[in-house]
Amino acid sequence: MLKNMIAILETMANSPSVLSISELSNITGFSRSAVHRCLTTLSDEGVVVLDKTNGGYVATSKLFTLGLRLLGKIDLYDATMPVLRKIAQETNETASLTIRDNMERICIARVEGTYRIIVRNIQVGQKAPLVVGAAGKIILAQLSDDEIENIIQYNIECCNYPPESKPSLLADVEKIRKQGFAISIEERETGCASISVVIRSVTLTSHASISISTLTSRFGEQEQQKYSQLLIAEAEKLAFNLK
Asked: pLDDT, tens digit, for every residue of 104-161?
């Protein structure tokens, strides 16, 4: 039954809309009665709740909070959320928090500014490679050369990362190490750009970064300088508060 529950939760997470029992049954291949039993148990445990407007079920924040606690990141999340709100308010752009998850990274928080952008690759809970994008590369730049080599090789072998991109990636890593922030322009999505800095705290069990995501049309040299200074200042405050 646990396996079925996980499959149902993953189906709900991957859907842009609320799914009914019939829709979950059709997608997962489970019988309606099996889906209903799973949802009843999940509802009893506070993991999902019934959406009375359409009869479907939606997930609560319980699993997300539990996951952060298991990862030892609940303090980081709580400390960073006010910072992300401040950044989003000051820049009108989208601010996010990303942590390293072994060979990948995962976005664990996101706050949208008034200039909302539709970016599929910075959804909360979504994993992404460390070898592309500002949030990934800033984390990658904090690692040893051997770790970087292993991660690049993993992405070449398992994630279709082109081997010919390795020299430019290593050059980016060196540049990031010198300047203290990472910039990505249309690297993962056309028309979008981002800038990231790492949170340097001895209390963190894995690397983390905060980022600003925007449109390339709003990301000139002036914005790059302004946002890099803002992120560095906020990351330093975060690191101090996390001690």
From this structure: 998 888 899 898 766 555 677 778 899 999 999 999 999 999 999 999 999 999 999 9
Closest CA to 14 of 3, 2, 28, 4: 28
Provide the token pair at 86.
């401040």
Contacts of 53 (CB under 8 A, 6+ apart): none
Choosing among 3.40.50.2300, 2.40.170.20, 3.40.50.300, 3.30.450.40, the CATH entry for 66-241 is 3.30.450.40
Q: Which of 42, 95, 38, 97 is nearest to 66 (CA)?
A: 42
pTM: 0.75
Question: Can you tell me whether residue 240 is helix, strand or coil?
Answer: helix
CA atoms within 13 A on the CB side of 194: 27
Q: At what angle do helices 221-241 and 74-91 cross, to 10 degrees?
A: 150
Terminal Cα distance for the chain, rounded? 42
What are the beta bridge partners of residue 59? 48
